[in-house]
Amino acid sequence: QVQLVESGGGLVQPGGSLNLSCTPTRRILGADSLGWYRQAPGEQREAGEAVAIMSDDKTTYYLDSVKGRFTISKDNARNSVFLQMNNLKPEDTAVYYCKAQRAVFANTPVELRYSVLWGQGTLVNVSS
Fold first, then answer.
1. Residues 87, 45, 126, CA angle at the centre, nearest 5°?
2. How far apart are CA 5 and CA 78, in angstroms?
3. 3-class DSSP state for residue 86?
């Protein structure tokens, strides 16, 4: 099956930067959207807030509080989606999850299709 593997989280001081990455364990052939969500540690990820989403037509959505600070991008050659986070604030502290919606992944003999696929999350802790 397919997993979304996130990395790049950690402890950072206010004003610092982190770059999160999300890489599926199989090559992604397409998706209606790829996005980053966040939730307080220990809380249900499905109830978290959407931080940044990129649709298949490359349109993007950003949570108001991260506009101008966070940038979502996709690199097809690296089969990954990224979230560059600059000028981090303590209120950005959360577990960040990658989510793929209506995604198709390469597989033999039949492609693998998921209506929704979540990663396991990576913790971002912004603290001095």
1. 25
2. 13
3. coil
Per-residue pLDDT tens digits for 51-71: 999 999 999 999 999 999 999
Structure tokens at 50: 């959407």
One-letter identity of residue 104 = V
pLDDT in tens, 64-112: 999 999 999 999 899 999 999 999 999 999 999 999 999 999 999 999 9
Nearest-angstrom CA–CA distance, 72 and 108: 30
What one-letter code names the amino acid at 44? Q
- For residue 92, which amino acid is it? D
Q: What three-state secondary structure class fits 73?
A: strand
Residue 92: phi, psi to the nearest 5? Answer: -85, -5
DSSP string, 88-104: --GGG-EEEEEEEEEEE
Q: Residue 41, preceding bond cis, omega within 30 degrees? A: no
User: Using CB atoms within 10 A of its CB, is residue 126 exposed (0-12), middle (13-18) or buried (19+)?
Assistant: buried
For residues 65 and 11, what is the distance between their CA atoms, to the nearest angstrom? 20
